Amino acid sequence: MPRGGFDASCLDRLLQTDRPEYLDRDDVDDSVKRQVTDALDWVGRVFKNHEQVAGIALDLLADTADPKILELGAGHGAVSRTLLENHPTAEVTVTDINPASVAAIAAGDLGSHPRAVVREMDATAIDAADDSFDLALFALSFHRLAPEQASRVFAEGTRVAKQLLIIDLPRPPAPLHLVRLATMLPLAPFVPLVHDGVISSLRCYSPSALRELAHHADPAITVELRGGLVSPQIVVASRAVSGRR
To answer: Residue 207: left (phi > 0), alpha (psi -120 to 50), or beta?
Structure first.
């Protein structure tokens, strides 16, 4: 499926790639991956992205007294840390598929936090029972998944949690996408974060693609979409108890 969905224009279909980011490559030194992760954490702190993501998640849990949250693809763990700081009784399971990221998170304050559990976990095959969590959160890395993997996240996230919250980069209309890429490409060969940013832009999903991915996972999954264009895309997915499997 095209990243822009089955209704994507010819130009939009050209503005995509299967090339992995540095973070997903086995032939890239860990120091380069750490540069990208640290830069993402810095950007998140400076521009309050961590606070924004945590705020969106906690708004969905406003009526839940002691929420159990699963963060998928946690990366540096800063969002989970913010969730714990901003909610006095929340319990957070912090996960990532990358062993090095999990080890780094476990070695920090989250590894000894009384309301946090740090685990290595694949978001496409979540090691948890049905309805184990009030919310599963996948923030700013969903685009790194191929369509079949992304669809599995919808299936698994809505299986283990009452709600699945995906926050990711917007996919703008093709002309605006070209402008965004043009501003990034000159620095991409020299700055690892920008290199990964270009690839992320080419891999992010449109609203219609996100709806198709959820439907492919299970027609019983309902999807609410908001944001996009220049702000992050916000996806809230859930399904009725009778539709769980």
So the answer is: alpha
